[in-house]
Write a structure and sequence with these properties.
Strand order of the largest sheet: 3-2-4-13-6-11-1-14
Number of strands: 14
Order of helices and strands: EHEEHHEEEEEEEEEEHE
CATH class: Mainly Beta
Strand content: 25-35%
CATH topology: Jelly Rolls
Shape: globular
Number of helices: 4
CATH architecture: Sandwich
Structural class: alpha+beta
Radius of gyration: 17 Å
């Protein structure tokens, strides 16, 4: 059983939240198709604009909430989803700074590039995932970092700048629509897409970073890992 009280020691776990609510998937797909090409977020920190990585970036990307403000009436068009993003993680709406939706590109297949994400808490939701098997690969760091490390990539898209353990974990979901946590301090990850055309829409929920939010989420993540012991993955120091 997981006995840790430190979310830094957990690399991945499903979260003990309410189920993802029912919503109109065709309406959401149309919303994504309409607004993804038109949104311009300057100086954003995701890797989609990276000169090298943009060639292999496996997702389309849009921010339904940015700097604490819902974009393109997302909260009015999809109130059940907007409310879920706060309720699921035991947050208030004002706690949420950004929400990012990441539908996998229809023409992407294989394993994406290895990376960590810049959001501070690693909160995720799959609104849809038609490939719930080996959907996500995870490599732990050698060192027990407590802050996200700066990384880069060589010309073959291999991680540089952070030593990794010689082990790869495969994350498992309990349901195809589900919340989960992923560690961006002590691990890097890569999306797995074994078959073309499988619908997959991930959401990154990025709360404001305050001691109160940090403490609440740390407890929530650790309690979830204790409940979902079969699916949770933990950081351990390397054995040489």
């Amino acid at each position: 059983m997981c006995m840790t009280n430190d979310a830094n020691e957990i690399l991945y776990t499903p979260l003990d939240s309410n189920p993802v609510p029912e919503y109109d998937i065709n309406k959401l797909l149309n919303w994504l198709k309409e607004h993804s090409p038109t949104q311009d977020i300057k100086n954003r920190v995701d890797a989609s604009k990276h000169e090298l990585i943009s060639k292999v970036y496996p997702w389309n990307i849009i921010y339904p909430r940015y700097k604490g403000v819902w974009q393109f009436d997302f909260d009015k068009e999809f109130p059940e989803i907007a409310n879920f993003f706060s309720d699921a993680y035991k947050l208030y709406e004002n706690d949420i700074y950004e929400v990012t939706l990441l539908p996998v590109k229809n023409d992407f297949i294989g394993t994406g590039f290895w990376h960590s994400d810049p959001d501070p808490y690693g909160l995720r939701t799959y609104l849809e995932n038609q490939e719930p098997g080996e959907f996500l690969l995870i490599k732990p760091t050698i060192e027990p970092y407590t802050e996200r490390q700066k990384i880069g990539w060589d010309s073959n898209y291999n991680i540089t700048g952070i030593p990794l353990q010689d082990i790869t974990h495969s994350a498992k979901l309990k349901n195809s629509r589900q919340t989960f946590y992923i560690n961006n301090k002590r691990a890097v990850h890569a999306v797995q897409v074994p078959q073309l055309g499988r619908l997959r829409i991930a959401a990154i929920i990025s709360p404001i970073k305050t001691p109160n939010v940090t403490n609440r989420l740390n407890t929530f993540i650790c309690d979830s890992a204790r409940k979902f012991t079969e699916q949770s993955i933990h950081w351990h120091p390397p054995t040489f």
